[in-house]
Amino acid sequence: MKVLVVGKGGREHALVWKLVQDVRIETVYAAPGNVGMTEAVCVPIREDAIEELVQFAREEQIDWTIVGPEGPLVLGIVNAFQAAGLKIFGPSREAAAIEGSKQFAKALMDRAGIPTADHAVFTSAAEATAYIRRQGAPIVVKADGLAAGKGVTVATTIEQAVQAIDEIFGGDFGQQSSVVIEECLVGEECSLMAFVHEETVIPMVLSQDHKRAFDGDSGPNTGGMGAYSPLPQFDEQAVTEEAMQRVLRPLVEQMASEGIPFTGFLYAGLMLTSRGPSVIEFNARFGDPETEVILPRLETELLDVIMPLMQGDIPEVAWSDEAVVGVVIAANGYPEQPVTGQPVPTDTIGSNLLVFHAGTAAGDDDVILSAGGRVLVCVAKAKDMKQAVASVYSGLDSFDRTGFFYRTDIAKKAFRTI
């Protein structure tokens, strides 16, 4: 078989890494891919060039296409591939709106009775600011549309929240015409992803992302600075069962009843509150960097999940009991103004680590250069969390951090009960 992965980041590199282990797959293509995806054949087609991707898939007789990032999904890549008679795994343009518009997602959750933060939607900066001053802080401000994982501000002061409003309506996150303002939920976050086809939901194992840039959950929000799985500080089975009952199943049933059934990787960002799991956000694709720690635990071949699911069957999915920790190496200045074009000394990373390229490009003389805010995701797998953490950081001991930084406390929360 031939498989096409659409995207160019660490999530897509992890997908490529997983797929090439399937002996039935002759070639994995990545569009556009990155310099680190040596396992794949990279093709120079942008992830949002949907007509070109359809043409490529036709000409190369691609058996399956898997979409990594949210952008092409919101643009309707699945609709275009299906109209061309091509097999693709992901939600339609209409279903991807659960990520493309936070306002749409909140209204959908309200109709489905899914627990989430109290919220209000505004199309005017002045009205949003007045509301914030009435409500006080802490408060959460979210750009309504896509913002590359950085359009959320958890404001501890009114001034921070008002600044976030100015940035959203000022164009810092693209063309944003509305803003969602939410109560600040109290608890601990976790990520629950699932394989979904219409009303069939197969949950994955839990993981936890680290959104803040610096140690101790300080600094600005980012797209994610690291992740780990499993979460030994929780009763994972109980959390998953409650989230399935109160969040995932109600969501997919509601979407199906409204004529917008969801198919693909469904991501639920959850806050585990004293009242149970509450939804922070839904994504219409695999989380990043959660993918880089989830896929190393997936023992079943990816297509052995996707193909039966798409045929209406319920696949058996096996997971490793081992612990996986992933640490993001970011460019200095990330997330506000990352410095790119810096040589990336991958040869100083320990050979014990899996290295997924997130934002890299080819320079002269085979030098790898930074080409984004998040540059690499370095991953260790071990029999328990303590060993996995020790392994990932020992593998980074010799890494030359000139021009780069990473958090040194990924998975620290897991040790509360170990």
CATH topology group of the largest domain? D-amino Acid Aminotransferase, Chain A, domain 1
Number of domains: 4
Care to count the β-strands? 23
* Spans of at least 5 consecutive residues with low confidence: none
Distance between the termini: 43 Å
* Oligomer designation: single chain
Count of runs of 4 or more consecutive helical residues: 12
Largest sheet: 6 strands, antiparallel
How much strand?
25-35%
Radius of gyration: 20 Å
Shape: globular
Structural class: alpha+beta
Helix content: 25-40%
CATH architecture of the largest domain: 2-Layer Sandwich
Please, what is the average pLDDT? 94
CATH class division of the largest domain: Alpha Beta
CATH homologous superfamily identity of the largest domain:
ATP-grasp fold, B domain
Question: Explain this structure to me?
Answer:
GO terms for molecular function: ATP binding; metal ion binding; phosphoribosylamine-glycine ligase activity. It comes from Exiguobacterium sibiricum (strain DSM 17290 / CCUG 55495 / CIP 109462 / JCM 13490 / 255-15). Keywords: ATP-binding, Ligase, Nucleotide-binding, Purine biosynthesis. The protein has helices at 10-19, 50-59, 70-75, 77-83, 97-100, 102-112, 125-135, 158-169, 236-257, 290-294, 302-310, 385-395, and strands spanning 2-7, 27-32, 41-42, 64-67, 88-89, 119-122, 139-143, 152-155, 179-183, 188-197, 200-203, 208-209, 212-214, 218-221, 226-229, 263-273, 276-283, 323-331, 354-357, 360-362, 368-370, 374-382, 404-405. It contains 12 helices and 23 strands. Helix 6 packs across helix 9 (236-257) and helix 7 packs antiparallel against helix 8. The mean pLDDT is 94. The strands form 6 sheets. Strands 12, 15, 18, 19, 22 and 23 form a 6-stranded antiparallel β-sheet that branches. Strands 3-2-1-4-5 form a 5-stranded parallel β-sheet. A 4-stranded antiparallel β-sheet has the order 6-9-7-8, sandwiched between helices. It is α+β, with helices and mostly antiparallel strands and 418 residues long.
